C-alpha cells in the first residue's frame, strides 16, 4: 500500500477545502476560511491568489487543461482562474455574478462545451454559465432542499439535494428534472459519475455511499460508523475515492462495492475535497491545513 504524502498549505485556520487537478499537472485548492485559492505546480511550487475580503472560495473544478472554476459562496459569484506567467501567482480570467442575491453558489462542474453548472445552496436551484459568461438559473422545485454538489457526464447533470435526501438528474438545460430518492435523513453531499456510468453519492449522515446504476437501481455501501463521507471522485476503473471527514481517512470503493479505508497521516484531519489526476494520483484537501496525495 502506497503511503500518503502530506503537504502543508496556507496559514493556520485557513481551511483547505476544495481540490481539483488540471491536465497541465497542477493541483488547485481553496482556502475556504482564508479567502484564497492555491495552485500547486507540477514542479511542486505553490502560489496563492487572494480573492477578496469576506469571500468564501469553496469548490473548485477543472475548466480547461490549465484553468479552473471556483465558487465564492459568500460573494454570490464564480471565478474563472488560470496560472500566472511562468507558473506564478494565479490570475483571474473572468468573474461571473449570480443574479439571485443570497444564492450561495457551492458545487461546480465544467462541461466539454465550455459551459459550467453550479448549485445554489440558498436558492434551491442550479445555475449555468454559458460560453459568453451569461448566467441562467433553474429552480429544482423543492423548497429547503439545500442543493449541494454537482457532477456531469456528457450533457447529463447530476446533483445532490442534501436536506431532501435525493439525487437529481437533468439532461440538457431545458429538460425536466428527474429525482432518485435516497434513504431519509442520509444527507447526500458529494457526487461523481464513474467510468461505467454509475452515479456515486456520499451520504454524510448515513456513513455510507449510494451507487445508482444506469437502470436506476440503488445500492447502499456502509463506510463505518462516524465516517461522515463528504466528496467523491471517480477512478479510471469504475470505482471511486471518497473523503471520510469524520474518520480522518480516504476510502477506495471498487465497482463491485469492495471498501478499503486508508487513514491519513498524523496532522492531516477533516478531509473535504478529493480529486484523481490524469496519472491516477489521488489528492485531498484536509481542513487541518494540508494537501494529501498518494
Brief summary:
This protein has strands spanning 5-8, 16-21, 27-31, 36-40, 46-50, 57-62, 68-72, 77-82, 91-97, 105-110, 116-120, 125-129, 135-139, 147-153, 156-161, 166-171, 178-181, 188-193, 199-203, 208-212, 218-222, 229-234, 240-244, 249-253, 259-263, 271-276, 282-286, 290-293. The protein is an all-beta fold and 294 residues long.
Describe this structure in words.
With 294 residues, the protein is mostly beta strands. The protein folds into two domains: 14-139, Methylamine Dehydrogenase, Chain H (7 Propeller), CATH 2.130.10.10; 147-263, YVTN repeat-like/Quinoprotein amine dehydrogenase (Methylamine Dehydrogenase, Chain H), CATH 2.130.10.10. Helix content is 0%, strand content 51%. It contains no helices and 28 strands. The strands form seven sheets. The chain has a four-stranded antiparallel beta sheet, with no helix packed on it. Strands 2-3-4-5 form a four-stranded antiparallel beta sheet, with no helix packed on it. A four-stranded antiparallel beta sheet has the order 6-7-8-9, with no helix packed on it.
Amino acid at each position: 500500500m502506497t503511503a500518503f504524502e502530506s503537504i502543508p498549505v496556507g496559514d493556520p485556520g485557513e481551511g483547505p477545502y476544495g481540490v481539483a487537478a488540471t491536465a497541465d499537472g497542477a493541483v488547485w485548492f481553496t482556502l475556504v476560511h482564508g479567502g484564497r485559492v492555491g495552485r500547486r505546480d507540477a514542479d511542486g511550487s505553490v502560489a496563492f491568489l487572494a480573492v477578496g475580503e469576506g469571500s468564501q472560495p469553496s469548490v473548485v473544478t477543472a475548466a480547461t487543461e490549465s484553468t479552473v472554476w471556483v465558487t465564492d459562496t459568500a460573494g454570490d459569484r464564480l471565478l474563472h482562474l488560470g496560472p500566472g506567467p511562468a507558473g506564478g501567482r494565479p490570475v483571474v480570467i473572468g468573474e461571473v455574478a449570480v443574479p439571485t442575491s443570497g444564492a450561495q453558489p457551492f458545487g461546480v462542474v465544467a462541461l466539454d462545451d465550455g459551459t459550467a453548472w453550479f448549485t445554489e445552496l440558498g436558492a434551491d436551484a442550479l445555475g449555468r454559465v454559458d460560453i459568453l459568461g451569461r448566467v441562467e438559473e433553474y429552480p429544482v422545485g423543492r423548497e429547503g432542499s439545500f442543493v449541494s454538489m454537482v457532477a456531469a457526464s456528457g450533457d447529463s447533470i447530476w446533483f445532490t439535494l442534501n436536506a431532501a435526501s435525493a439525487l437529481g438528474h437533468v439532461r440538457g438545460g431545458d429538460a425536466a428534472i428527474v429525482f432518485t430518492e435516497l434513504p431519509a435523513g442520509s444527507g447526500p453531499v458529494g457526487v461523481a459519475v464513474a467510468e461505467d456510468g454509475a452515479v456515486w453519492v456520499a451520504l454524510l449522515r448515513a456513513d455510507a455511499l449510494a451507487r445508482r446504476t444506469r437502470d436506476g437501481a440503488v445500492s447502499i455501501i456502509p463506510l463505518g460508523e462516524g465516517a461522515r463521507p463528504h466528496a467523491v471522485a471517480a477512478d479510471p476503473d469504475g470505482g471511486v475515492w471518497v473523503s471520510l471527514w469524520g474518520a480522518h481517512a480516504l476510502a477506495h470503493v471498487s465497482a463491485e462495492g469492495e471498501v478499503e479505508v486508508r487513514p491519513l497521516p498524523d496532522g492531516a484531519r477533516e478531509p473535504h475535497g478529493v480529486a484523481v489526476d490524469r496519472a491516477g494520483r489521488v489528492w485531498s484537501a484536509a481542513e487541518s491545513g494540508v494537501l494529501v496525495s498518494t
